[in-house]
UniProtKB/TrEMBL annotation:
Pfam family, one: Iron_traffic
Annotated keywords: Iron
Protein family per UniProt: Belongs to the Fe(2+)-trafficking protein family.
Protein name: Probable Fe(2+)-trafficking protein
NCBIfam families: PRK05408.1
């Protein structure tokens, strides 16, 4: 059964995540306020960031950096800046 929520990223009603994908308070906030669609967008950006910056996910600093970027992207409407990446022209 899917659940609908008001997605803070998309600024509209959308299908919510099936379960909490991220730990802690931030994970709870994402689960309650971010849609599947928005999470998928973040996943693409996250992959690009990890590759671009060659982040080692075993490194605490890298995880902290990624978490800050995730929060800014999902909740503050800030796009992730990836050097050398040009979004496709629509």
């Amino acid at each position: 059964m899917s659940r609908t929520l008001y997605c803070q990223y998309l600024k509209k009603e959308a299908e919510g995540l099936d379960y909490q994908l991220y730990p802690g308070e931030l994970g709870e906030r994402i689960f309650n306020n971010i849609s599947k669609e928005a999470w998928a967008e973040w996943q693409k950006k996250q992959t690009m960031l990890i590759n671009e910056k060659r982040l080692n996910m075993m490194d605490t600093e890298a995880r902290t950096y990624l978490e800050k970027e995730m929060e800014a992207f999902l909740f503050e409407g800030k796009d992730v800046e990836i050097e050398g990446y040009k979004p496709p022209e629509s």
